[in-house]
Design a protein that fits this description.
There is one protein chain. With 332 residues, the protein is α/β, with parallel strands linked by helices. It has three domains: 45 residues, no CATH class; 138 residues, 3-Layer(aba) Sandwich (Rossmann fold); 131 residues, Response regulator (Rossmann fold, 3-Layer(aba) Sandwich), CATH 3.40.50.2300. The chain has 13 helices and 13 strands. Strands 2-1-3-4-5-12-11 form a seven-stranded mixed sheet, sandwiched between helices. Helix 9 links the parallel strand 6 and strand 7. It comes from Enterocloster lavalensis. This is Transcriptional regulator, LacI family. InterPro entries: HTH_LacI, Lambda_DNA-bd_dom_sf, Peripla_BP/Lac1_sug-bd_dom, Peripla_BP_I.
Length: 332
């Protein structure tokens, strides 16, 4: 039984069901009783208990193994699983919903002790379907980086809004007023939150957002390249561009170089997630939002394997849902 099914059975909203399950916010005693009764009758708690703790495999599903961010997260996961004598099986969904469903179906056939996943989408019909498939695994599930809307799964996340706010504020403080953004997809939590942080910074400094400077990508290098070219074709070049993940930053840098646009002179570039290739190989000193990626993997594995040695930088939300704070890395 999923939260959506409990909602349909009781008539309460999924938000209310989530408040009851996560013990967050206020619900009256009668609502609490009805929700818990429906969950018990539907076997919701039995599924949570049936975790097959003696199994030896931790499943990991990520949307893009070519992204160094996920490589670092997996490194953190393995640092923990190796000490617990668990094996890790990793699957890549290539940001494709059908591949995500196939990966979950394959994980269903394995004897997992738990699953760590970065889902593609956190909303809409796809989100509901993935929530049901995750629940049907009957093992602990920990989300990393992206959420499943209104779910009760444990998770480790980054404060995307704050990170994007800080780096946009930094660009404004450096004197840049026309700042473009290559955002992530709005169907994902990081995509929406980083765009929100960018807009919040503009608002704080009394700047009017210009829709012509908004470009929505899909977190791939190819979209960063294509959108940077689109940005250049509009005529007047922005003074700066904020790319909302490392691969889109790389694509943007590649496109600017192909058109002989000099970073730091003709335009400034800022990114979310540091790329060693840009910093060390290309020797481009751009400002970035750095995430504690290995730490995110460690925290997810520790939560999954019930070894909650949580880092001091974490903020516990509801149940075990953590927000880790990124830091601003500048080139001065």
């Amino acid at each position: 039984m999923t939260l959506k099914e409990i909602s349909e059975k009781t008539g309460f909203s999924i938000t209310t069901i989530s408040r009851v399950m996560n013990r967050t916010g206020y619900v009256n005693e009668e609502t609490y009783r009805k929700v818990m009764q429906a969950a018990e009758e539907g076997g919701y708690f039995q599924k949570k208990k049936n975790t097959a703790l003696n199994n030896n495999i931790v499943g990991v599903i990520v949307p893009d193994l070519s992204n160094p961010f996920f490589g670092a997260v997996i490194k953190g996961i393995k640092e923990v699983t190796e000490t617990m004598h668990k094996e890790v099986v990793v699957m890549d969904t290539s940001e494709d919903f059908n591949q995500e469903k196939r990966a979950l179906a394959l994980m269903q056939s394995m004897k997992l002790c738990g699953l760590i996943i970065t889902p593609i989408s956190d909303c809409g019909q796809g989100g509901y379907e993935i929530e049901k498939m995750l629940t049907d695994l009957n093992v602990p599930v920990v989300l990393v980086d992206r959420d499943v809307k209104n779910s009760a799964f444990d998770g480790v996340f980054i404060n995307n809004t704050q990170g994007a706010f800080e780096i946009t504020s930094y660009l404004i403080q450096k004197g840049y007023s026309r700042i473009a953004i290559i955002s992530g997809p709005r169907y994902s939590k990081p995509g929406r939150e980083r765009l929100k942080g960018y807009k919040n910074a503009l608002e704080k400094y009394g700047m009017t957002p210009d829709e012509k400077l908004f470009f929505e990508g899909d977190f791939s290098l190819e979209s960063g390249y294509a959108l940077a070219e689109k940005m250049m074709l509009q005529g007047e070049l922005p003074q700066a561009v904020f790319c909302c993940n490392n691969l889109m930053t790389m694509g943007c840098v590649k496109a600017l170089a192909a058109h002989k646009v000099k970073i730091g002179k003709d335009i400034q570039v800022a990114g979310f997630d540091k790329l060693d290739l840009i910093d060390q190989v290309m020797d481009l000193k751009i400002a970035t939002v750095d995430r504690p990626t290995v730490e995110m993997g460690r925290a997810a594995a520790e939560i999954l394997l019930q070894k909650p040695k949580l880092p001091e930088s974490s903020v516990i939300r509801s149940g075990i849902r953590m927000d880790l704070m990124p830091k601003l890395s500048v080139y001065e």
